[in-house]
Protein 1
Amino acid sequence: MAYTKSKHVPGRAKHRINKAGESTILSKHFDQLREINEDNQPYQNIPWDVNKSFEAVDLYEIAVMALFVLPQVVYVYPILFILLLPPVGLNLLYISWVVPEKCDVIPRNTKFRCLCIVQAVLCFPALVVASSSLAVSRFAMLFFGIVYCMWEEGAWQRYQHNLKIIEPYCHGPLVLSYFSDCVAGVAAMVHRRGLLEFTSSFSLSEFIHSYGKQCFCPADDHVLFNTPVFIINPWIKYWITGNIYLTNLSERFVTQIGSAETMTMDQMCRRVRNYISRAKSLDATRRYISSAFFCPHFQYPPPRENRFFAVGLEHSTIAAFVHATHFQAAPDCIERSISLSYPTCISPTAEVPIYRVVLWFNNPYHIYTGVVEANISKGKQPEHPMWLISSHNRLAADPRIMLSTGWIDTFFEGFLPHMSHYIRSVQHQM
């Protein structure tokens, strides 16, 4: 994709975060994406060339990753799993006993503030272990990235090019700077998935055989490879899909379109938000949501905080933290939608924008870099456009390689039918 040169934004101003959780330079980048995609009618995937065979760079990435990931799995995983059980279990008890049924936003009251204080103490050992693991991984990527560049002509120019590609997605809000969001998000997700399933995939990466074939996954369709998320996510993000040292990066566009619905736009929007953003649902709805192979939770921003975004969670093949911007206020915060001006979506075909998820480069606990939207199109169809930073080597972009930027397109094509079924099922709205 070709971009026009953006206007120079001096110093720290270009990385200043607005109420939508987006920097000035990222907002300008969204304007460029909006201009490019206005000419893309009908809204179609842009072709992406992928190397058909494994090359030296793929083998090098695999070798280095195995050298550092496998030892961390053996030694770090048991520690993380044990350390994460108490705080995750406490979150489950809190949302089960304290939070009322059909609760859109977990109240940020005195009880919740006390919970956050206790969680900060309980989570500190796990944070130390995870941070140490991340530091070792990033140093290894830097060292072996420089080693590879020393033997290849034009590596410095490629590195400079890649820095320009990822620049809009750098310097985003830190996940831990919104610790209360993390506590509330984990509470909602563990209530949906259960203590052991969530904790194992919170510290493990759960691979699903039938991710593109069916939306409901019985227990015998799950295979646990015991790969810690706090270990594997940074390696997939910085070493495989978005390696700034070894491969040429650019921005890849793909989109998924669901089937048209007969209900009103407001009904569709409300049901999608109930599915994804409601903190605590009734048991029947919770079981239905949990039965899917992909479970996103983009919680509403706290009502008393003047922002449109919150830290959310995704749970499936991996667990991941995200920054989700809401185009509409929570159901019990109608006055905010009137008094505040919400951001504009990127997609030119969106009739009702719902979410924009920014996958910041400085968020090591999501495997991609880019931006994703979830909207209702003008044809009353759920749409899911994605702009992802990727290279063209097979390991990073081949649809047959799990967790690549090509694979994720098929992944969401399998999830949209499940979402459409929920939208049509009135009994799950109770």
Protein 2
Amino acid sequence: MRTFTSLVATTALLCGSVTLTAGQAVALADTGEHAEARAAAACVTVVKWSSEKSSRYVTVKNSCSTKKCFSVTIALRKDPKFAIGGKKQQKFRYGGTLGNKGTGIKNVGC
């Protein structure tokens, strides 16, 4: 009886360690994806927010050599998406002056 109990305990311990290892592998994969997103976030930065006539604009700079896509975060509205070429600074119109101001940018897939 003790041998059977010991065998069950050992099996449970091994299954638990295999599950833990698999969970750690998934966590490492997620960390790699987040690192890529952080690297892309470092490429596109806001230079300034502005309003001209009846429009709101955001000026952004892409310091990377490849095209990047981003969206402007606006409260209570769907975030508009934009793309900027490599090594460029560009102004984008994201809404009218009656709408909410943008609060930041998020990197999105192109």
Protein 3
Amino acid sequence: MSEIKLNLRPNLLRLFRYLSEIILNYLNQFRKRSNKEVFTTYVETILIKELHPGQIV
């Protein structure tokens, strides 16, 4: 029975690494998209201020 436990441990570590890589890739993709949206909103705000200097944004 101890042989089975010893054999399962590397597989569990491999599974954990695989799942953590998937999760980190997903989070990085979301973060990049979020940063892009924030940057786009910032640029749009600057452009609106340049085009309409008297208006409050």
Protein 4
Amino acid sequence: MAEPPAALAPAQPDDKPSTYRYTSLDTSARSIRLLRLNSNKGPVKCELVTQQLEHGAFTPYEAVSYVWGPPDLCETISVSGVDMPVTASLIRMLQDLRERRHEYLWIDAICIDQANTAERNHQVQQMGQIYRSARRVIFYLGESTFRINVLMQSLWKLQMGSRRGSTRPTNNNHHEKRHVPNRGRKASGRRFN
């Protein structure tokens, strides 16, 4: 995997604690953290890097929106060699995105220090810019079910209709089916323009 661009400053944990501790973000600037996801198999390994949104030369990233699921922090990922507790739905999503070779991601549950109220409030105020600045927005719905498949088909029909100038669903099933996951596979999508 390529080295991170010089514009990115690694967010380093303090003194290698047993669980990850965030370094403070500069709230006077438009600072965000990005998750750099390693593509190797096995346990999820990543690092957090900090970048400024206001500089035009920031690293391309993908913003991820996903179903949080149960709030229990029952799994761990390795962030710069230090464990970070995460939910089961988050680790499943990271494993799936890792297989698809997504490198730099913005995921609110990881990239925002959820225990720091001031930082969390500051980041929430920037979310519009965070999503607009992303190269792509991925929404992740979890394990595929019949209802999720129907939703994905409906969204695809709406997207195809809007590209033709109509917002009415189309009946073009040939093109849709290759984008809808089969039962038992993960359901994920992309930003619909």
